[in-house]
Specification:
The complex is a heterodimer. Chain A contains 11 helices and no strands. By secondary structure, chain A is an all-alpha fold. Chain B has 14 helices and 2 strands. Classes of the chains: A mainly alpha, B mainly alpha. Chains A and B meet through helix 1, helix 3, helix 4, helix 5 and helix 6 of A and helix 1, helix 2, helix 4, helix 5 and helix 6 of B.
Chain lengths: 263, 287
């Protein structure tokens, strides 16, 4: 195959794949601004579906619940995950068992963790609600924070820790004044990642929320709405949720790239 | 060695490890144990040892659902790997300075909500959806086959949701390939196809294996996509597990099913590690 033909083929593949990835989402976003709300005909630009969204009490209630779950679980996971990452990287000998436990929450199928936690909570007679969702979200969130922070620690210059100790700083002071500032961009990036994951997480929340509508989260609300079909309101909600994820991801990426000079 | 490095950092790891033990390890062991108990008459759990639940998993009725799920997951993983590999190959063939941006936009959809990405296909495929309207617009008046709530819709949904990961997994080894190796192969008279088949493909097996296993594992246990795009027309293992816990109230059987799911996953992950190690071993020998 001549070089030109090959390049053309590559471009065609890229165009096809990007169309496949972006057309469905784009249609959704476009329809959320369609005044008529139907996919049949474009009847003019309108933001009225966004207005309807904010007037919908069920959706606002679910959004508030999601915010509570995401904020609390992110805070807990960021603290636990960062400490874990530092602890693991300080050790010189790495245990396979330890690695497995830290890695497991990221690869275990959602449904398995979800039913495991459901059985666990109900056997202990724990009344389920937002608090059980939070506890469950911390499990996978701390693993993700830990892996982001560990990636940064791989290139960490431990000699500055030695310098700090030589100058008489205690271990706690060294961690707080030397290690943490260097890690901060990775910690925030990890926290943003955890926050996004928690906002989007559906299955584990669904199983650990308990009965009743009081602790319904946004993804649970979306799932319930989608089952009844296509509405312009869901299109608007979907657009906002996607926008949020993209912004959070972009921020997280940016933070993670900056930081240590010479990287 | 510094004092910080010498000290056992247990106090740093303890809170997180305690959390993971209490809310992951113990609940998973509980599920493991549940699978060996009998279902109570009123839906609870009777603490009598039994192998009935595990036997039920291999009962033809449920084994068929397992095979069906594996078939759908395998098809989705196969398509995702072919498309994803082609995309990764095309990205790696672009000028170096363009590649990070292309990769970023290929992975971006992966970061939006899974339910919403699935819902986007309901918008496209439903009876009054965009695709039907496009056909009408082009003047096609005949009856169109049902698109939503079919197996095809489920496979499309799974491929769509997991494709970005496959692109990422395949791009990593492709971008590390030394172009001189391909040039050498070309200079020795190999055609482009031979070079691809004998050089490029074997050296990128780890990415392909990782992508395939990832899509397969996430698809076989999936219950959101079959529920939304399959419309309850057929069951996959994920839906079956879901039903045991939330409607049928047969927890021990649900536990046995999820154990089987984990077993399949572990076998595949081990196979993937093996495939990657073999591939890198091969590279070591060639070098």
């Amino acid at each position: 195959m001549p070089e030109r033909g090959k390049t053309r083929l590559m471009l065609a593949i890229l165009a096809g794949v990007f169309a496949f990835l972006y057309v469905p989402i784009s249609v959704l976003i476009a329809l959320s601004f369609n005044a008529g709300g139907l996919p049949t005909a474009w009847t003019g630009f309108s933001v009225k579906w966004y207005g309807a969204l904010f007037a919908n009490r069920d959706i606002m209630h679910a959004a508030l619940n999601t915010l509570i779950v995401a904020v609390v679980s992110t805070l807990l996971a960021t603290i636990l995950g960062t400490l874990l990452a530092v602890g693991v990287e300080i050790r010189r000998r790495k245990g396979r068992f330890l690695e497995t436990i830290i890695f497991a929450p990221m690869i275990i199928p959602d449904i398995v963790l979800a039913i495991a936690l459901l059985s666990f909570f109900s056997m202990l007679n724990v009344k389920m609600g937002l608090h059980t969702i939070i506890v469950s979200h911390v499990v996978f969130n701390l693993a993700f924070v830990c892996s982001v922070v560990r990636a940064r620690l791989k290139t960490f210059d431990w000699s500055i820790v030695e310098a700090s100790a030589d100058l008489g700083a205690s271990t706690a002071t060294t961690l707080r004044r030397v290690v943490l500032p260097v890690l901060m961009p990775a910690v925030i990036a990890g926290a943003l990642l955890a926050f996004t994951l928690s906002v989007d997480e559906f299955i584990i929340a669904f199983f650990t929320a308990g009965a009743g509508r009081s602790s319904i989260t946004l993804p649970m609300q979306i799932f319930a709405m989608i089952r009844f079909g296509v509405t312009p309101e869901i299109n608007a909600l979907a657009t906002l949720v996607m926008l949020f994820s993209v912004i959070a991801l972009a921020l997280s990426q940016r933070l993670n790239r900056g930081g240590l000079p010479g990287q | 060695m510094s004092p910080v490095k010498d000290r056992k950092p247990l106090y740093l790891m303890t809170p997180a490890l305690a959390w993971l033990t209490a809310f992951m390890v113990v609940p998973c062991l509980l599920i493991l144990a549940l699978a060996f108990f009998r279902r109570g008459i009123y839906g609870g759990v009777e603490y009598v040892f039994t192998l009935e639940n595990l036997a039920m998993v291999v009962d033809p009725l449920y084994a068929r659902i397992f095979l069906k799920s594996a078939g759908i997951a395998g098809l989705a993983a196969g398509i995702a790997v072919v498309v994803g590999y082609a995309a990764a190959y095309a990205i790696a063939a672009m000028p170096r300075h363009r590649q990070p941006a292309l990769l970023f936009f290929a992975v971006l959809p992966f970061w939006s909500n899974y339910l919403i990405r699935t819902y986007a296909w309901i918008v496209l495929l439903n009876r009054e959806g965009l695709i039907v309207h496009l056909f009408r617009w082009f003047g096609y008046e005949g009856e169109l086959p049902q698109m939503l709530y079919t197996e095809t819709a489920v496979v499309i949904g799974l491929v769509y949701n997991y494709l970005p990961f496959v692109i990422l997994a395949c791009y990593a080894p492709l971008s590390r390939l030394n172009p001189e190796v391909a040039e050498a192969s070309h200079d020795l008279g190999a055609s482009q196809w031979t070079t691809f088949r004998r050089i490029t493909l074997p050296m990128t097996v780890p990415g392909i294996a990782a992508g395939f296993v990832f899509v397969f594992v996430l698809s076989i246990g999936n219950f959101v996509t079959p529920a939304l795009l399959g419309g309850g027309q057929f069951q996959m293992i994920g839906n079956l597990v879901y039903a045991q816990f939330l409607t049928a109230n047969d927890w021990p059987f649900g536990a046995a099913l999820s154990m089987a799911l984990i077993a399949v996953m572990m076998v595949l992950l081990t196979a993937q590690t093996f495939a990657s190690e073999r591939a890198s071993g091969q590279r070591g020998r060639d070098a």
